[in-house]
Design brief:
Number of domains of chain A: 3
Number of helices of chain A: 15
CATH architecture of the largest domain in chain A: 2-Layer Sandwich
Oligomer: homodimer
CATH topology of the largest domain in chain A: BirA Bifunctional Protein, domain 2
Strand order of the largest sheet of chain A: 3-9-10-16-13-12-11-26-27-25-24
Helix content of chain A: 25-40%
Shape of chain A: globular
Strand content of chain A: 15-25%
Largest sheet of chain A: 11 strands, mixed
């Protein structure tokens, strides 16, 4: 292995945005597609998504939700039904206008003028309207409620500036859609999911989050309340990692979701919607990644351990391979987090150093090197992704499985603890306007990407003060955490009028 | 339970097409969406799809394939690259022309004339062209091969006549795309997947299939050879349950997938593609369904056993529920096909007969009724979906788990054996033209839906004879099974010229 330098370049401190692109590329997670603003999710990135899906899907099923699938295409008229919803999404809709291609005079393909759709379709940017139309026939009486449905799907939003995982025109997500008998039930569901997302992101992705309600200007288009979980990335910006919406009766009214209530009267249902997306992969990269690339928390990684046989291209290799196989078998018999330890052996013909760096960049928690000398001592050489790259430890075979399990636990905990410490170090309770400005103002020199952080600051509740922060400092209210909303009532950090809440202010992705 | 009559209407023999729609509806598998030609896959149908995905995905990973995700949108110019491919798909492409909506003078939404895409996109009808463009950069040398990629995705094909699961504008599928160093390697992959599909469909879905190569007229647009698996449905029509394509260098040439081969020369890759879709759910319905609705093979059903507590609305119910819970726990401790037996207890307030019929229509393999008298004898009352609806058996608790496991095995085997017997009964080796015509000719009276079957008949290989069968009898060559292609060389069943192969002729979905 190389003795100096980092696996990827630039370093985070030099250019965080460029570091992110390079970390994603070096780990082989995804790449830009030859379609504007879209991405190709490569096998290593998709394996992460499959793990996210499997775990979250299990949690949703445990809480009574069932999966279903609804159309990709939504008639234009559906979008028009909810006035705020339209305003939120009309600007970013891909529109399908024809259902056939023909050859033109020059032999090139063009949309067929004789195959114009009577009513154009949009490709779903989110599915409240089409699912609402279907739910209208599924829900008849209070006995049909609650209706708890989830969908795993692709969606499109025509964004102008895109970045792998964080903001792409097409992305993958799950979207939950539920209908309830009462406002209280729907609100309870909204908060139950917010809690479920918090548990998932913190316990599996090892990303600490702040949860709370959005300010009116940041609400999902058409929602009564939007709740979110917000995480601090390595550059101190906030990333919205999941949202849960209480939709009141807005969408039920727009879609005609009506039920006979317990008194026999017709009533509109109370609905919720909520989702997380492939954006979470970007959050993993920017929360745990270091100057050698990504670091994968053991509870979400597609591979816990990679075994690297020391190969010399001679007869000894067969012995080393056999030994590597037995180490792999030993580890696969052990259990981490309820599943067999995931092990691969890298038998590629390539330099040992090159292969070490490959797996460092891919973020695999543990690398185990086995060579003739290890075999002599019935031992292996173990490297941890969360330690200095050259640091290693000889481990005797009898202790190996239990040590690997304990190490995976330590790495998982370490990921969370480091992220939490980073966030806490960069979170301030700020009451004075001058401090607020100083905290967020772009530094005149040095690294202009990494500054600021999370500020918990009193706010009077006026859109004007929120807008001032946005315009002047590029800072938005990420959410209003519940625990602080009642107990601090200092004057608004912007205007000095009496405070109404203490939101989390931050720059954000 | 009702003493007479079937759970659904009409019977298969009265109107097979109407029976199919009703079987799907009564089982709550899917429904027509409020978008032309599209479907909503309801939770029970989607749970079947999830099982199909989980099993098939495991088989594909076992054979070295990895999942990835590629864009939904394909630039028009990509489709133009492969001439035959264009001709096959241009007529059924949904075209995206705008990326924004605006309000018109009347306040309604219309595609924004200022947001016309410079080049229109089509929604993927299949992904050879877009994946090929990406593979072109992934493949550099022979060391990058084989490249074995699979994608789970939605696709759109603008069909004019649609039917739930069997032919819908949008459907869900997996599409495999691989690149190989040699023609032999690619052909071997094509056939390996054909075998894998055969194993999956026969062993899990309990559907016997005939596999073979397509005639040139039925090939996938742009393929060198298309192979398929064909199953006989309850009405004796064939259903193509999966295809595997050997694409030669056609798509590699169109997309520029080139590699440095072992001699250092640049060469185009040899590619394959293959897929199965939500259509398989239609195949399950039409292979195993009876006049009471669908029947689910135990290895694919989302639920093995439903427990129906006999409820009287009095204090005794609590005792029955407790007993039902202990029966469920007993069964969940047992294993069928490598997983814990899947059990649900139906505690809904509804008549016992109504609930029995509900689960019959949903095709659950085993129903277990528990009431006060069962509790007295420490027993349960067991019903099998593949037996007459009222027939039941008292089973003592100590024997219950092992009996359920054995019964599930029997039902799985029974599903396959019945389907195989049905197919064999309705498959003929026909050499004489008059017999061929009689076999396929629409009966003058009686059930005009159910006639014919599979004919293995010699064919000279000319498109004219194939076309004659299609035009005159609405019969196509489904595939040319390998085992018969060499051994029978009788004169062509249509023209009497020397035969070149013995294809499987049938009407089809």
């Amino acid at each position: 292995m190389a003795k100096t330098g980092n696996a990827i370049s630039p370093a985070r401190s030099a250019d965080y945005a460029a570091w992110y692109q390079e970390a994603v590329r070096a780990a082989d997670l995804a790449e830009n597609a030859p379609v504007r603003g879209c991405m190709v999710i490569k096998p290593w990135g998709y394996a992460l998504w499959e793990n996210i899906q499997a775990i979250l899907d299990g949690m949703l099923k445990q809480t009574g939700h069932r999966n279903a699938y609804f159309p990709l295409l939504i008639p234009l008229s559906y979008l028009e039904k909810e006035a705020e919803h339209v305003d939120g999404f009309a600007k970013e809709c891909a529109v399908v206008t024809h259902h056939r291609l023909v050859k033109d005079a020059g032999g090139g393909l063009v949309p067929d003028k004789d195959a114009i759709l009577p009513e154009p379709y949009i490709i779903r940017p989110t599915s409240e309207t089409i699912i609402g139309a279907v739910f209208a026939s599924w829900v008849q009486t209070h006995r049909d409620l609650p209706l708890l449905i989830n969908q795993w799907a692709n969606v499109l939003r025509w964004e102008m500036r895109t970045r792998l995982f964080l903001r792409t025109i097409e992305f993958l997500w799950q979207e939950g859609h539920t209908v309830h008998e009462t406002s209280d039930d729907a609100l309870a569901e909204t908060l139950k999911i917010l809690k479920l997302y918090t548990d998932f992101v913190q316990n599996y992705l090892a990303i600490p989050v702040v949860s709370g309600v959005k300010s009116p200007s940041e609400r999902f288009a058409g929602a009564v309340e939007t709740y979110s979980i917000e995480a601090m990335m390595g550059d101190r910006k906030a990333l919205q990692a999941g949202t849960s919406q209480f939709l009141g009766q807005n969408f039920a009214r727009a879609s005609g979701i009506q039920f006979r209530n317990r008194t026999g009267a017709a009533e509109f249902g109370w609905t919720t919607s909520w989702g997380v997306s492939t954006r979470l992969i970007g959050a993993i990269v920017m929360t745990h990644g270091d100057d050698n690339g990504i670091v994968l928390p053991p509870r979400i990684t597609p591979m816990h351990v990679v075994i690297l046989p020391v190969m010399r291209g001679d007869d000894a290799d067969a012995v080393v391979f056999e030994y590597a196989d037995s180490v792999a078998a030993q580890l696969r018999d052990a259990t981490f987090d309820g599943r067999s330890i995931l092990v691969e052996i890298d038998k590629r013909e390539a330099g040992g150093g090159h292969k070490q760096w490959d797996w460092i960049k891919k973020g695999v928690p543990i690398r185990i090197e086995v060579g003739p000398r290890d075999i002599e001592h019935d031992a292996v050489t173990l490297f941890r992704r969360d330690e200095e790259t050259r640091r290693s430890k000889k481990v005797a075979r009898p202790e190996l499985a239990s040590l690997v399990v304990a190490t995976l636990d330590e790495i998982q905990k370490g990921c969370f603890d480091r992220a939490l410490a980073h966030r806490d170090t960069n979170t301030r309770h700020i009451s004075k306007k001058s401090d607020f400005v100083e905290f967020f103002e772009l530094p005149k020199s040095g690294n202009r990407e990494i500054y600021g952080g999370f500020a918990l600051s009193p706010w009077c509740g006026s859109p004007a003060c929120e807008e001032w922060a946005k315009t002047t400092l590029k800072v938005t209210i990420r959410c209003i955490p519940e625990e602080t909303s009642a107990d601090r009532r200092e004057p608004c950090v912007v205007c000095g009028q009496p405070g109404a809440a203490v939101p989390l202010f931050a720059r954000s992705y």
